[in-house]
Fold each of these.
Amino acid sequence: MKFVQKEFSCTFEERKSKFIAFLMPYSMFDVVMKKVKEEHPKARHYVYAYRYLNEFDQIVENSSDDGEPKGTSGKPSLAVMAGAEIINTAVIIVRYFGGIKLGTGGLVRAYGDSVNEVIKIALFKEYKKLEIKTLECEYSELSQLEYLLTQEDINIKSKDFSTKVSLKIELTNEEFEVLKTKLLRSILVS
């Protein structure tokens, strides 16, 4: 599974109708939808689809045809995302009607193609289930520990300097097992 970390957009034309697809992290969906409606007030449809993982690691999906014939736009867009194994991501497709009716099959193809086009240009990051762990060390060991975490591409969520230095880090269980073998014995792990 994979996801995007920023917004991407791409324009696709089909028989004089213009489809502008916006792919973004799911967390940005509401903000981008508002921006898109402000930037494209004369557009005919604002179709969307999204997939994200909830707190129970279940995939939640939703889509909207926004006035297009039922099942011709939102569902095909969602199907493209599911087929590409994209999660924690949303897509909004703005349609400007070009005067030629595409028919149900034409709409399904056009919306699917517009999502495929934006996926082609997007940069994805591989999804990993992350957990929060706490490391404690003496202040004198902090720079060495930070260097190791940077080398292992492990994100430091926070630092606490109250008694010993305490770092909250975010990583997978596999990454944690590898890290434990590289840590100094004086570093406490919890």
Amino acid sequence: MTLIFAHRGAAGTYPENTMLAFEKALEVGADGIELDVQLSADGEVVVIHDETIDRTTNGSGEVRNFTLQELQSFQASYTFNVGNRFTPIPTLREVFQFLTTNRLVCNIELKNSVVEYFGLDRKVFELIQEFGLSDRVIISSFHHRSLMHMKQFAPQLEYSPLYGEPLFQPWDYVRMMGLSSVHPAYRTLDTFTVQKFAENNIAIRCYTVNAKKRIKQALIWGVEAIFTDYPERAITLKKEVD
């Protein structure tokens, strides 16, 4: 049965990568949430997608140049109408505290393809251990070498490489990495590719699946999970397909 992951929370209708978006994902019945992590100037693991704060907050500048206190002074929901609620950039610790109140699975994308963020992987792992969430966390990244590095010191976690362009026999590549799941862009998939991943016992979680036609096709394929900005829409369609 295909799982529904709220991409950056319920990002289609609420400010992405905020506690509000994660809370709404839980409220509508998502199976999991997806989020992105980087490091603040003072080494805190913060939840934000872009390497700059320009697009998603009322501030400007690179994430790595602000302390946590400075980052959390910006309004991360300024492009959404959320009333008078102040919505800051959350820390991964805050998200994990939220996860202790429910059973959501959490996919953490390491945003280290542009900025290296030395030590990000170890800080993430330490938080996972602290909260006892090893069985509810998936680590993904477009930086596949960093996934393999983290796998060396934290082999008990699940790792899934992200990719956005068609690859030659990607099932062989994932097997070579010793991994059992993969996160491809939806547009890279077709029936043949889905079948080959299945033959190789590799679970597919594809992104970012928003259009109804694509959601239905992913459900018909029976992929392990989809990442969507509209979890409520996907859950409704899943009921129809089932």
